[in-house]
Amino acid sequence: MRDFPPVITTFYARSGDGPTTGPLAAPDTRTPFRFLLWTLRLQWPVILTTTFLGMFWQLPPMAGPWIFGRAVDEGIVPGDVSKTLQWGAVLLAVTMVGALFGILMHTFIVRTWLIALYGTIKMVTRKAAQMGHVLPRRTPTGEVLSVAGSDSDEFGALTEILARTWTQLVAYLVVAFIVLSTSLELGVLLLVAAPVLVGAAYPLLKPLHRRQEIERSRNSDLTSLATDIVAGLRILRGIGGERTFGSNYAAQSQLARQAGQSAGIWQAAIEAVGVLFSGVFVVLLVWLGTRQVISGDLTIGQLISFLGYALFMIYPIQTFFEFAQKLTRASVSARKAIAIFEQRPPWQDPAQPVGLPVHGDLADEQTGFVAHEGQLTIVVSAVPEDTSALADRLGRYLSPDTEPVSQDIGEGLKGRAARRAREQRAIDRARLAELDEERARAAWGVTLGGVDLAAARLADVRRRILVSDATSQLFAGTLQDAVDPHARLTREEAEEALRVANAEDVYDALPGGWQGRIDERGRGLSGGQRQRVVLARALAQDADVLVLVEPTSAVDAHTEARIAERVADVRRGRTTVVTTVSPLWLHHADRVVLVQDNRAIAEGTHEDLLLDSPDYRRVVTRAMDANAETREEVDDRG
Amino acid sequence: MVDLLATSPDTWRDRATEPPAVPHELEPPREGSFTDRVTALRRRHSLRERRALENYAQSRKPERGWPVADNQAVLHFLRALLRDRKRTFVLLVVLNGMAAATGLVVPRLLGALINRTVAGDAASSLNALAVLVVVVVVAQAGFTFLAQRTSTVFGQDLLSSAREYIVRTILQLPLGRVESASSGDLVTRVTRDVGTMSRSVQYGVPMSIISGLTVVLSIIAMLLNSLVLAVPSLMVIALAYPQVRRYLRKAPKGYINEGATYSRINSTLTETVEGARTVEALGLADRRVGAGDDDIAVSAQAERYTMTLRNLLFAVIDVAFNLPRVVTLLVGAWGYHEGWVSLGQITAAVLYVEALSGPLDRLVGEVDRLQVGAASTSRLLGIAQVPPDRTPGTQLPDGPDLVGSDLRFAYREGHDVLHGVDLTLDTGERLAIVGPSGSGKSTLGRLLSGINGPRTGSVTIGDVELVELPLETLRTEVALVTQEHHVFKGSVRDNIILAREDSSDEAVWDALRAVGSDDWVERFPAGLDTQIGSGNTQLTPAQAQQIALARLIIADPHTLVLDEATSLIDPRTARTLEGSMNALLEGRTVVAIAHRLHTAHDADRIAVVIDGRIVELGSHHELVAQGGEYAALWRAWTS
């Protein structure tokens, strides 16, 4: 039987994990309902066991009133001490069994909940690992994270309520049987009342959910406002604006309060309706019971049992109610999860992959750019987007030129309009996926040693060509982890990497040296420090082909000069491409290529190009008249 | 030159020997007798407890980051919040009391119904009593609605005040601390801690009041129904008290530890998703998946700890809360035999003990939740305990002359990064500061702009110490322009008027025009009211930078300190912005902490800072002629 944390190999198997086969290989993403069924099927033995244990846990409320009634009829009323003690002992035993199984059931409920919760988080992590840079192209990061952060909990809640619902259903039927066999009339009342009670509050659920949805969305806006204030706090305290943003926050906080209150009113109505209906039901039951006692069909002990059951029946009813609520919420969560889980990587390794040759130039058809083997080639362009697009192509990355499709359709829509909006989003998402697949299927247009990158395995491309671009990120951990994430460098190699990237001061600044902690995304380090650690990490990978995009844009001239010299030195004889316009780099280049309008229009050494190409001169030694011209371009983008 | 990597051999670790995320001792044994297993479980439980306590202690006394307040402060805060809402609070108690009380009348009436049935009363009297019960039930439903409504209004109101207070506090944090501290801890506090506090304020406070009230009223109702039946049952329930207390002492720490493991899971996953491209490029997928699994394994241990705590609690309360049924039966039989209690009283007593266990359970849960909420609240209130870093005086500067003399500054005690720097700015001049990273040039910029006060020496503007100026005045005298060009969530106007929040729209348009942004802002349908920032209309990096510059035009300080202002944006936008930048710099004194040499080239004077001292100071031509550090760099740049 599964335990938590569960072993998950869906979407991505770590080396050492066996490949996943069978129904667990991938979730059923056809509909939210099927998805939920799939998550439940992952652990049905656990849920079944929980249900089984739950039946014993429910023994006291199930059998208690009956025992009590017998004790009244056989012991108390006739004054039979031994009978009273006998039934008292049975009641004690039942209570103890209930307590013991209560603990067991709790243990299993935690287990099933956490299997679902941890399982979902693990699947999201594996989905991210499987999709790589393609995932943020299609889905906003926040939505990926919220599947792991909050939807996972809904799935856990569903497994719990499912087990409890089964338990309560059984208890309900057992009690119904006891009651029916005592009195047909009252038994029927009990059986009929439960569904009626669940149904009665149902119309109130929809408006409640809509309001809860609004409350959730306003609260998340509120959180992002607070995060935004913290992110810009230096500006707010440095330049001002505390009043404006303080009151913006307060206004949103009041909106969230109103939404919470109006949801709360519906919640209150639902509670009140629950109290009313179950109360009336109890009275009705007792009243009918007294009539039967008078007519002699029922003993007084039996009536007292009925009372106990009438009170108890509230719990199954509430549980069924809760089940309906949680199922709805889990379905909403399932829809969000499906939007992530149904995505597939666009790449498909060719049927007969060609190994990338060890020797040869790296060439891009679209621009005509060529990086010769073993040389340091620097790409210069007036438009940085061109060079970063080129770098993406060289590494076989899809450019981040798409707007991710959000699942969030806003708070105003409901009913058919909401469904239409959701369908539209699904279509948009599918279109993005198709676009990616089309690009991934076709010849890529970049060759290494004459072999198109699409003809080789993607893993092979990644191993051979390393592109370190502006989005390169540091991860939380020690400095040692940051420079040597694979744990395969010697200390000397790591030191060398730090020296080449001129990042020794980061080592010195962190208490604990190599074991010094780097915060998430390298927060706490300055921009320049971050950039140099990223560079050290890229250099230490020792890739055959290394592409560095603006590697020193946040570094001062002194340091840049040192880095350029050392990188040129350490990469001597290996294919290296750097995009920059800094002269401090340029005169270390074996070859400089000027890219304009997506064409390589000039190439040569820095000195030659300075002499021969006015375009080049204008880009490198910043031309004073560039202002007016480029400002127009910015306007076009706005 | 010192070798900065001198300690490298001591701090480098062989990671093959690293301990696993979860020690092997925490894995349950596969076989063994029942007693062996129980012993092993106890061992694991105490090990888990130790881990939880360590983490908890760490969260109370963070090594880095912002302080944490004590429990006293939390109580004080809560009392102040309640004091402001006395009326709603009283209403909440009264309405919930009424709801509980009406609910408690029902069993008594049902008991009476049974007594009358036994006594053989006429059907009509039974019917009348039944109708009365229905009336009471309707009243109970009505009170429940009103009580719940009041609770929501109360909880939501309490919550909004609390969170607005926190954000106000954050907006008053000392400038020097804000500039130096990492924002990560603060982000966690405004997201996770506000969330935890919300749950406890919004539900925990009203619910514990309601449950407590219900428990008290139920006990009273029980005693009123029959002392003989009530007292033994209550005594049995009281037996659970020591275990409940033990649980309540330990559990919150367990839950706080648990919460920390979840935020760890979340931040690791966030990094994996946001850094997807990096993960893919470096082939880190296996590592990231492994890191996520490790976080989950640690979290599972935290869950197992609290699960065992709960099981230990349940073992006691499940018995103690259910045993009264047996007690009532036996005592009832005896009392009935002796003629002290009626069947109706026994019935009502059973109904009461059944009804008592729910609120009791809830009360334990809510106190739990309140304690966890209190821990988060103490972290939030800790923000308010950061002492102010300056006491503004009343003296206003006499003229714009900025003079720094004998400046020394240390981030860590005994580690001065500046060693007695003297610098006098000429009004209207452009001074470039160049130097390698770590030389202290950024620190100098922060002292010159009044972000931090110097350890020794002074920075004055018009003969007044910068740190003695009120912030509102300081901002209009000198401003530090950093590489951060954060665009706030809000309107274009909100994003620009920061320094002078009462600026007119004309002033805003003037500023936009000056930096060359008027035409693209005009093209927004909502103009200045267009919502920008994360989640709204996206700006290009150049536009974001222009917005940042327009803010400064509005602030209109006579002196600007530019720190790497254009360094993090691409070279082309840097050039695009030159026009916008020039508009801003026009007529002001400018100190530029330069990464790019062309900035230095254009300056009136250049200060070369190395190892916390100004080693060269003069115009470009003077320094090139001098043949020192700057000259060498310039040659490399232009060759």
The named CATH superfamily of the largest domain in chain B: ABC transporter type 1, transmembrane domain
CATH architecture of the largest domain in chain B: Up-down Bundle
Mass-distribution shape of chain A: elongated
Domains of chain B, number: 2
Given helix and strand content, the structural type of chain B is alpha/beta
Proportion in helices of chain B: 55-70%
Largest interface by Cβ-Cβ < 8 Å: A-B, 184 and 185 residues
Roughly how many Å is the radius of gyration of chain A?
34 Å
Low-confidence stretches of chain B: 566-571
- Cα-to-Cα separation, first versus last residue of chain B: 27 Å
Shape of chain B: elongated
List keywords for this structure.
heterodimer, A: 638 residues, alpha/beta, ABC transporter transmembrane region fold, elongated, disordered C terminus, B: 639 residues, Rossmann fold, 2 domains, six-stranded mixed beta sheet, ATP-binding (chain A)
Secondary structure: elements and pairs:
The complex is a heterodimer of chains A (638) and B (639).
Chain A: H1 32-41, H2 44-57, H3 59-76, H4 81-131, H5 134-138, H6 141-182, H7 184-231, H8 233-238, H9 242-294, H10 300-312, H11 314-341, E1 362-364, E2 370-371, E3 376-381, H12 384-394, H13 415-441, E4 446-448, E5 451-452, H14 458-464, E6 465-468, E7 477-478, H15 479-483, H16 491-500, H17 504-509, E8 517-518, H18 527-540, E9 545-549, H19 557-570, E10 575-579, H20 583-586, E11 591-596, E12 599-604, H21 606-612, H22 614-620, H23 626-637
Helix pairs in contact in A: 1-11, 2-4, 2-6, 3-4, 3-6, 3-10, 4-6, 6-7, 6-11, 7-9, 7-11, 9-10, 16-18, 21-22
Chain B: H1 8-11, H2 34-60, H3 71-83, H4 86-119, H5 123-170, H6 175-180, H7 184-225, H8 227-238, H9 241-274, H10 276-282, H11 285-338, H12 343-382, E1 402-410, E2 416-424, E3 430-434, H13 441-448, E4 456-461, E5 464-465, H14 471-477, E6 478-481, E7 490-491, H15 492-496, H16 505-514, H17 518-522, E8 531-532, H18 541-555, E9 559-563, H19 571-585, E10 589-593, H20 597-602, E11 605-610, E12 613-618, H21 620-626, H22 629-638
Parallel strand pairs in B: 3-10, 3-11, 6-9, 9-10
Antiparallel strand pairs in B: 1-2, 1-4, 4-5, 7-8, 11-12
Helix pairs in contact in B: 2-9, 2-11, 3-12, 4-5, 4-7, 4-12, 5-7, 7-8, 7-12, 8-11, 9-11, 9-12, 11-12, 16-18, 18-19, 21-22
